[in-house]
Amino acid sequence: MEKEKIIERLSDIRYELMKIENELFEIYGVEPNSPGATLSDISYHVANLTENIKTNY
């Protein structure tokens, strides 16, 4: 049960990160080192963490 709650919370966090990421891309563009790109990298790591927890724990 706890695992599912953590996965759900991580999914919610990723969704929020993606919304902010899109706003940052609109403001700063999609350059490799832009704030949106940095947040995109973080979002990617959150997604990987979520999948890792789903499949390995």
Defining traits:
2 helices; about 55 residues; about 85% helix; mainly alpha; about 0% strand; single chain
Polypeptide structure, described:
- The chain has 57 residues and is mostly helical.
- The chain is 86% helix and 0% strand.
- The chain has 2 helices and no strands.
- α1 (2-28) runs antiparallel to α2 (35-56).
- The chain is elongated.
In short:
This protein is mainly alpha-helical and 57 residues long. The protein contains 2 helices and no strands.
Question: Which value, in Å, is the CA radius of gyration?
Answer: 13 Å
Average pLDDT taken over every residue: 96
How many separate helices?
A: 2
- The poorly predicted ranges are none
In one word, what is the shape? Answer: elongated
- Strand residues, percent: under 5%
Helix content: over 70%
What summary fits the major beta sheet?
none
Termini gap: 12 Å
Tell me the total number of β-strands: 0
Order of helices and strands: HH
Outline the fold blueprint:
Layout lengths: L1 H27 L6 H22 L1
Helix pairs in contact: 1-2
